[in-house]
Structures are given as C-alpha cells and as structure tokens.
Structures
1.
Amino acid sequence: YTIAADKVKAHIQPTMYGIFFEDINLAADGGVYAELVKNRSFEFNMPLMGWKEQKKDGGDGRTEVINRAVERPENAHFIKSYITSDAGFYGFSNEGFRGGMGVKEGEEYSFSVIAKQEGDTNVKLNIELHGDNDAIIGNAELTPTDKEWNRYSVKFKSSATTPKAQLYVWMSGKGVIDLDMISLFPEHTWKNRPGGLRADLVQKLADIKPGFLRFPGGCIVEGRELNNRYQWKKTIGAVDKRENIINRWNTEFKHRPAPDYYQTFGLGFMEYFMTAEDIGASPLPILNCGMACEFNTAELVPLDKLDPYVQDALDLIEFANGDASTKWGKLRTDLGHPAPFNLKMIGVGNEQWGQQYVDRWKIFTKAIKTKYPNIKIVSALGPSPEGKEFDLLNTTFRSLGADILDEHYYAPPKWFRDNARRYDNYDRKGPKIFAGEYAAQSVATVSPQNKNNWECALSEAAFMTGLERNADVVNMASYAPLFAHVEGWQWTPNLIWFDNLKSYATPNYYVQQLFSLNKGTDVVPLTLNNEAVAGQNDSYATASLDKNTNELVIKFVNTSTSAQNVSFKITGSKGYQKQATVTTLKADSKDAENSLAAPTAVSPVESTVDISGNTLKLAIEPYSFKIVRLKNK
Ligand code: AHR
C-alpha cells in the first residue's frame, strides 16, 4: 500500500461524524431524560396509567381526575384526592418505566409536586421509595401549605440499589388536595442540572466527540398524524407547560407495542441545544415540513396553509441565533442562555419523499434563504438509497441547488461493504452529502431479530472508509437509531443499549467513536496499485493528516477471515517518530456482541508499532479494524 502524505485530496469537516437522536426505544422518556415517574402529569390517554391506588393502616379515600382543558389546554389533567379517614394513609404508587425506577444506594433523589390544598384542609404527603421485596429504601415528608397551585420539593437518599423501585405518595389527614406534576429525579444528572439528563448516557455521547447532534428525529418529527407532530415551541420553558403527546412509536410494530410511550418533552429544544453545546456538537434541528409520517397517514398541510410551519422554522433560527433584541432571542436569553447557539443548518422534513415533499420544500427553502441566506438546509432523499423515490428527489434537489442531501440506508452488512465506493463518482460541485441514518441489518431491514453484531459493525467501518475518502462530498454521517432500552425497544439494531441503571456501547458505537476521534483534518491518498482500497483482499482503508496534532492517521479494515501482513510505503513526509500508536477493534466471531453483562467484550485495545524509515509494517488480524497514528518528526 502507498500513502502520499503530501497530496491533500479533501478537507474533513469538523462535522463529519455526528449523532442522530430520536425518541424511539424509550430514548428520551424512560431513557436519557432522567425523570423516574411515568405519566407524572396524568396526560396519558388513560390518565392514571402507571399509577395504582394504595391504602394502608386503615387509611381511605378516593380520587377524581379533573380536566381543566379550557384554562390549561397544554396540561389538562390533575388529580383531586379526598382523604376520608382520620387514621392511616391513602395514596398512589408509580411503577416508573418498564416496571420500575433505577435508583442507587447512597444517591440523593429529589421529589417534587405541584399541589393545592382545598378549603381549610392540611393534607400531609409521605413519600416512600420501595425497593426489592417491597422494602422501604427511602422516605421523606412534605406538607403543601397553599390554597393556590404551588411547587413543593424534598430530597432524600436511597439506601439500596435496584432497577425496579416503586414510588409511593401517601396522603394523610382528612381533607382534599389537588396534585399535578408528581416527579422524582436523581440529584446526580448530566452536569448536575436539576430535572436533567442521565449522566451515564450523555457521557457516552460526549465520548464520541461528535461533530453534530441531529434532533429530535426521525419519524417523531412527522408524527403518525399531524396533530402529533413535533412542535418545538411547545417543548421549551416550564416543564409543566410543555404539552405531552403520544409518541409516534407508541403502537409501532405489533411485536413490541408500547401503549405507555408518550413524550413529556422534559427533553425539549432548549435541552437539545444545550446538550449539543456541552458535547461540542453543531446543532442540527429537523423540522416538520407540513407532512405527517408517510409510512402512516401521510397527512399533508395544504400549500396555502403552510405559513405556521414555515414560521416555526424562521423563529427557531431566531431562537438559536438572535440576540435579546429579537423576540425569540430574548426568550432564549430569558431561559438562561444569552449566548447564541450558533445554528448553521436546519433540516426541512425528516425522511420525506415524493412531489408533495418537493412542493413544500420549495416554500420552506425560499422563506429560509430569503431571511437567513447563510443557513444551510438539509433535504431528505427518502427512506432508501435506491429506487425511483430517491432518484426523483436526488435529481430534483440537485437541479434546485440544494445545500445538503440526507441519504438513509438500513441494509445488509454486505451492502455496506459493496458500497464503499458509493461516493467516489459523486459530483464534486453539487450538494454535500449527509449520511443521516444508517445501520447494517444483520437479519433483514427492520427485523426485530437484528443484532448489533461484529459483522455489522465491521461492515459499517468498511463503508465509512469510503465516506472519509470522499470527505469533499460527504460532510456529515450518523448511525441510527442511537438509544434503546433493553426492555422497551421498537427497533433494532441501535448504537447504545441501556436499562434503568446501566448502559453499554455496542461494537458499532466503538466504530463510530474511533472514526470520530481519529478523523484527522485532511484526506490523503492511500492506494494499492494506484487504486483506492475498497474491497481488494477484503480490505478497506483510508488515510488522513491531523494537522492539529501533526500526525498521519491510517484506518484499515480487514473483513476477511485471514490475517494479513501489510506494508505501507509513505511518501511526501520528512519521516516519523519511531513508535506509532495502534488501536485495534476486533472479535473472534462475526456474531460477537456486547451486552449489559459483558459491555466491553468488543472494545478498542491500544498498542504500539515501530516504524522503519518511511515504511510501516503491520500485522492485521482477521476480522479487525485498526487505526495507526504516526507522529511527524
Ligand atoms: O431510525 C428509525 C427510523 O428510521 C427513523 O425514525 C426514520 O427516519 C427512519 O425511517
């Protein structure tokens, strides 16, 4: 193999490897959003879903679910409990997500409620956390004092670790009390923000050092029907004013229905922007373009009624970038973030297709470009990289001078290996490419049997050498979906799996991470007999310079079952320090996977190799992905 270290072919964008976030598989509620209470504001279709009435020590009472939709359409329900006994306790338990709440011994939890005493009553609240075998593992007391709605909170520690704790809210003292937004959060969250995100999960995102964060999806942007589309303006500000809606994945896939899957939007647009900022990723919001999910109802907003949708996009740009003299910039400032979020791109529609999409896209694009000519627009090319829908959009958007085209591919591992040259002949002067959703499917596309196995991960690595080699065209790429709860998923494979307490990174995650941490700044040619390495000897390779660290970075993927002894002749360099660092990701079997029990079975291993002159010799194991970093002298 030959590497011409002085012949820069393409600049690698800082955005190159990023993250695709969607609230699917309990990614947000029940996942990264650390709220432990399910249906905290009684807004599910069955308002007491997740809650169970409880009585003890002779306590008694009854509860009404009150609908105040006229005054509070965004948070219509609360409960009114009548405590009818002098003695004992009456109340409710909450089952959390997937049958429990993950709590840890010694950690502090914050219980809060919005409450109102009625008349002269003085109902007292006793909060209990029940662990395994119903043992009480944490408790606290709280007496709401006001006759007007007010928020009350109290902290307590858990004395045990369990993934399936239950929260009990007991009421005592005869009287009537109104309750809403009954909430329990760990004190320890990402950056210890109150009401924040699960630290272990966000840390895994930060560890990728992603170039961008795409949010909030995925199909939830569209909604199964337009009423349940994602509307960013309803996801900011006080959490009790964020209107809950059913999650689009609630009933998807008959094999894993999730009737209790809703969106509380506790993870809303402000949190997405702030998370992107925290982890150094460029924000990439995707907005509904007046189309519901085309896999479902395919409802459309008439073209002459599109204004509010377009306005949402314009207002979002102002919210992200405007200063306090603008309406939406002021709101961001008032929400505690005076500095702009530096939004540079926005997606119009998720995975739309057809002429109906083009018609709406044109209206959005004209409005956005007129007001914000520097904002780049991400345009979808439908659900598949092949077929007539893709061709129509590809041709149309290219002729209309689109900025960035979003290609999606969920396909067998072989497709990924076979497509390592996909971008070699793309028009260098046309739109940039965002490989916005992809994942190798071990069994069949969208099969519930799909695994995050090593063959899939290695094939993705092979494909990604092709993305990187074509970094002058491909500016962004993200695996999808990102998160999945091991007991609550609708889609597989996924990048990161978790339960109520723990999480693990898949082999696919490590591939993404290694590409991102080692992307370098500029592609240089790595060839075999003057050809890019994309399948010869079942090998795939790319090389880049890292001008920030003054290194040459080689990525080599061996998808064959045989070891290979390879040698790289490097030209155009003044020489390298004797020892180079090597990172190897490999597994003995193509079926190898990680799991909660063995989270790092397939994970990177570091070593070193000596270089002689400008020649690097490397022993490459079967079925492995290697990265070598050579430091210039
Ligand atoms: O990633 C899962 C789904 O796949 C996304 O919601 C959608 O955009 C695509 O069809």
Note: The CA atoms of residues 454 and 592 lie 5 Å apart.
2.
Amino acid sequence: MSKTKQLRQLINSRKLEFIMEAHNGLSAKIVEEEGFKGIWASGLSISAALGVRDNNEASWTQVVDVLEFMSDATSIPILLDGDTGYGNFNNARRLVKKLEQRGIAGVCIEDKQFPKMNSFINGQFQPLAEIEEFCGKIKAMKDAQTDEDFLVVARVEAFITGRGLDEALRRAEAYRKAGADAVLIHSKRPDITEIEAFMKEWAGRLPVVIVPTKYYLTPTDKFRELGISLAIWANHNLRSSIAAMKQVSRSIYRDESLAQIENKVAPLEEVFRLQGAEELEAAERQYLPAP
Ligand code: SPV
Ligand code: MG
C-alpha cells in the first residue's frame, strides 16, 4: 500500500493511533523497527539536530533533503511538520509538490506567521495568521497535490496564543471548510482541559490530532475516550539522544578512555545492521566479478 494511503488509513481509523518523532534517516528507521505505523518529522527535532533554532533557520529545501533520507530508510508514512508552509500559499503549494516527489505522505501546517517560533517559547506573544489567508493556503495545497491520498493537516494555535475555545473552534471549522483532511489542536497546558473542551464542541467533524508533550501525565485512555484520532510523541527521540550523547561524551572526556562506556553504547554490529550492510554484501556477490 502506498505511504499516502497508509497515513490516510491511520488518520481515518476508528481507533486512536500514534506516530513517533524522528529527525534523520537513522531515527526514522528505529521508529519503524520499534513498531510505529508512522513518523512525525518534527520541525523542532530536525532543526535541533542540525544545530539551529526552530525558527525556520534551516531552509525548506534543507528540511526536504533530510526528509528524503528519512523516507528512503523506511516503509511507513511520514507526516511532515511543515511549520507555516515556509511562506505564503505559493510556497506552501510548491512544498506539497516537492514532498510528493520525495515520498512524504502528508504535511501539517500551523496558523502562525513565517518565520515561525516554537509554540512552547512565549506562545502567548506569537502572531496568528489571518483566517482567510490560512484558508487560501490550505486550498492551494489541496489543489497542488497529485496523489489524492496526500494529507494536509491544519494546526490550530489558538490555545497556544492564549485565545479561547471560540477562536479555536472558529479556526478549525474554517480550515475544515477550506479542505483540510484533519485538524491538529495544540495546547501547552499541563492538563487536557483545553483539548477536552474542544473535542466536546467539535463533535467529530474531522479527525483530530494532538501533541501531548506538555500534558504527558494524562492517561492515554483519556485520548481514546475523547475520540482523538492521532497522538504525536513529538520530540522524544531527539531528547533521549541528547541525554545519551551528553552522558557518553562527559564520561569519555573525564576518563580519557572508552573502557567504561563500551557496554553502554550500541555495538558497531548494530550500526552496520541498521545501515543495511548485509544487503550490500549480498549485492556485491551478485554484481561484482568473483574474486
Ligand atoms: C514539533 O515537533 O516541531 C512541533 C510540535 O511542532 S511542538 O514542538 O509541540 O510545537
Ligand atoms: Mg514544529
């Protein structure tokens, strides 16, 4: 089944599904091997892994280049965190074309302004996009896709910027009418109250996606109870790698030796396996002249 069809099935399935963050080919492969059915190509994580801020400092073509490695390394669908679409409707529709060419199954765009800023940094001061302008962007993206299953998710930042339920609902409904396939409702509260209020009024008009980074103590069954379609574990491979790399670098620097860490890191054989070294050996036997 095509990756776009897989992602569409995930979002339309009647049960709660999960996708996991990855930020390069290696982490994408690990997400697939551990059992996830889809990948969140996080803007925060990709930019952090590149050593820059989550403020569109990496150009969109640099992001697309990372995505190509992620897509090549995996057979499950990737949903790109496409920020604001990297410009106006025209930039966003060109993005859709390029994503389709690289085998990306869908993109999520948020109703803020370019250059965006991460929602968890002074979210209340971030300017939102005009509703009409954002709807035009959604329409242009839907018109640009050539694969009917390619997914456009509209992310509502009303709660992040301190606006209330009415504004969140007004925006989500406008984005639905503009042709979005799903809405992502974001919240930075440590509890699920905003999401719960939204879900009750929204009443299943379109599938709903959430990012429970800040309300991580909410039991997952609560998401099911509210009828949420897709939960994104948005940055935990990046954060776990930061913790692991700091620990190992610190230890090696301090000890001037590898003796203490050899058993704490992945064996080299595991690196080769993840890279698919065996396949190359078999191909060499097939295609190179016998020694
Ligand atoms: C990301 O992963 O980059 C996201 C989710 O956009 S959040 O960081 O929660 O805004
Ligand atoms: Mg992001």
Note: Strands lie at 17-22, 39-41, 78-81, 106-110, 151-156, 182-185, 208-210, 230-233.
